[in-house]
Predict the structure.
Amino acid sequence: MEKGSKRQIVYIGLIVFVFIVYTLKLASIQLGEVPYKKMAINNALNKITLYPSRSNIFDRKGKLMVYSTQMYDLSSFPYEINKLDTGLLCSILEIDLPTVRHLILDARIRAKKRQKNNAFNNSALFYANLSNKQFTLLRENIYRLPGFYIESRTDRQFATTSAPHALGYLGEADESLIALDDYNQPGDLVGITGIERYYEKQIRGIKGIKTVWQDRTYTERGVVKDTQFNYPSTAGPDVISSLDFDIQEYGRLLLNGKKGSIVAIEPSTGEVIAFINNPDYDPNTMVGRERAKTFKALLRDEQKPLYNRAVKGVYPPGSTFKTVMALIAMQEGVVTPETTHGCGGGYRLGSIRVGCHPHGGPLDLRGSIRISCNSYYCQVFRDIIDNPKYGDVKVGYAALEKHLRSFGLGSQLNIDLLGESRGNIPSVTQLNRRHGDRWKSSTVISLSIGQGEILLTPLQICNVAAIIANRGWYYAPHLVKKIDGFKDTSWDRKYRIKKFTTINPTYFATIIDGMSDVTKPGGTANGTGINDIEICAKTGTAQNSHGKDHSIYMAFSPKDNPKIAIAVLVENGGFGATWAAPIANLMIEKYLKPGVETSKPAMEERLKTSVIK
Amino acid sequence: MKYSPLNNNTQEKIDGLSIFLFIVLVIIGFLSISSATSDVNQEFYSLSPIAIKQLIWIGGSIVIIFTILYSNVVVIDYFTYGFYAVAILLNIAVLFLGREVSGAKSWFGFGGIGIQPSEFAKVASAMALAKYLGTYGIRFQGARNITICLLIFLLPMAIILIQNDTGSALVFLSFFLVLYREGLPGFILISAVWLMFLAICRIVSEATGISSYYGYGLLLGLGSIMVFFARKDRAVSTLITFIAVVSAAFYTIVGTVYSSILQPYQRDRIELVLGLKSDDRGLGFNLRQSKIAIGAGELWGRGYLKGTQTKMGFVPEQHTDFIFDTIGEEWGFVGATVFLLIFCGLLTRIVILAERQSTTFGRVLGYSLACVLFFHLSINIGMTIGLVPTIGIPLPFISFGGSSLWAFTLFLFTFLRVDQVRK
């Protein structure tokens, strides 16, 4: 018995041994480095993003242009769906097995991007934009699909299909956008172009969060009651665009069958009233499930429907540029309203010949605008840059260039769109490169009539019209008038700065008189004018090395206290008066006399139905 | 009247410390079960259906306690073999009449409740062993006695193995530990530990691809050195040679069994426990979640009813086999250590009580209780913290379930009653 009794120590020793070993092991787990607590929280909580409604966008008169729609997505924990009932999922979504595999892989990529360190517990978009039928079936069966949940998001619907390039479209945030702004998560819809992109931060609203408990099967088990985990989303504030819904639709109609752009600006504010391109696309096809498919098709389309020619397309301004030349010539003191130059069907200097159309007698300044005499402007151009006070053609040209740049040409106007082109006003360096060091005024004579190296966007042409309408100043054109209730008001600071040209305001009167003759008998756009409305305009016909000339027209109206400045460009439309002028004049009429039938129904009908091949 | 070691009616005070620790453990168990099965979003403290069930089981065990305390000890002695026979029969019957729960056929189902006879086989075997060894003139010596002793607990173990309840069957191995106190030579237990060590070494070498020749080389080298030093004593050097040869043979057998006989999933399981494999998605999920639960408790715990790992079901069997996770998660390192201290305190107390028994019956019964509880504790908690393989046995007094609670209550209080009337 003695021997047995001593063995008691062995038992107690064993108990103490286990106690010590287990306590040490517990310490290494509970007091160690591994963030088990974080992992536990990650396990049990699912933070469901509450997507806010994006801003509604209204036109300048309060008409709704773009609004948000609710859509439902199927989201998942793509690493937790190993025991997936694929048959059920396939039948609900009406897709096949390979597609399911593909979707799972996609979702895993999204989940990985979402938080690089711990992808296991990350959820990600699985299948966007469920149809009503899919949504109903899923809501009934979601408990049979552990690891999946339904998330609601907002998408877009467009009340007008006429302004896709101004309003823009949404797309899934790509890696670069996520890197730029960690607000975005893979699968989020963000503005890619247009107002949607430029004002993304204002328009998107503020996401909310609903945190739910979830169990091992990733099934929701109620909302976490702690308020720090839950806050509602905030919808984007109402955005008032400067566009005019009706004018926009009307202009789009008139541009049917033609390639080109229409831009209209309210001169006194710089607000863009109309912003139209053709070809364009139906923005309502760039929403929902069709978005990606549509986008691919549009990218491949040879008509380039995604191309925003109004701000990206650059064209020689042609004769519309003569207005600017005339103003600069007066400012430089080489021309007065009384200065006359003869023509004789063209301008000749040595081997150079610039043709002109037949017109009578020597013209004064006002007449030169009305008739759009090429010879007159060749002469004026030479007078400007060969001015003896500069002594050298390059110094003279530099003075001209400086004036041109004060019109906002050769640089971005800073409209609230991304990717705006600067156009081109050639610098002396550029001309040196192009023509060699020893060029003369006659070498670059085509610049005088808006040809050669000079390139403008339709927006810039329109802005020139606005500057003349204002007699010498402008506000940077912009598409958004007001953002309701948005706290940070600095967004439009750059649109409240008045910019002045280098031209003395008194010089504008003669030019404007000339422009007011253009639609009258004897003017280049005679017959396209509107009764009772005084339109100041200038036609242009831009030579185009690729084909038929572009038809260009810029105008503003009324003559005093102008309400609208407009530029129309119809590619390969020939004379400015043929297509661009009637379109612009009808739009002016529509804008100044809203709701009134046009006084030129035949002209309107011709424009709506004609097609330029 | 037949001789009985228990026919002494001297009334002593029943051991209050044991009862106190028992009550504390049962309360901890109830609170943990209640938390592990509670709704995550409950506004007020309310009992889950499972917690209410456990309350009923606790009520039943109170009845058992008072029945034992107020019955004559003679009765216990008198019914021991009968009780053992009934337990064996029930365990055989369950093979035919039982219902299958997760692969094991070890449950009798009566409506919503189940009874697991294997739980009662432990206490029955302990009592039978105690009674047999306590019989006048019987000691743990001689082939016949030893055979009967081993049969007493290896028979139920075999039956329970047939039930496919490996965990419960393994518990009966703890009786070898009891026999150590009754004279089983220590070298047998040491040999067992040595063989286990060899087996682990061989498995590690198989799993990691380290050549098994290192093992052979080490055995040969160590053996040779020892034989060299003991070369003058022929008996010792022969013994060392014998041990080395047996070890090498065992080492070889383990290798063969491991690589050719075990199924891949069995190998996976072993490798997982040995830390040779980390598999967070598949097999290792349970272990990983269990560690996350305990780890999430950190020093002070996440607070009562706030353990999301357990109540959200990330931890498997959170109210039965993995109930310790709730303690670890909600009460932290401090709580878990205090809990271990309480449990080990009870074990130590039982060993002390067992040793003070004047009868072999009481001593064997006490040591059986201590060893079985010790086995349960180390396997169950070791499993949750990843020190031993996942073997599904409950944590006594803590895990949900009537059979386990009643059987251990019966076990503990029978012993305490025997202790109460010791000379």
Summary: Chain B touches chain A through 52 residues (CB under 8 Å).
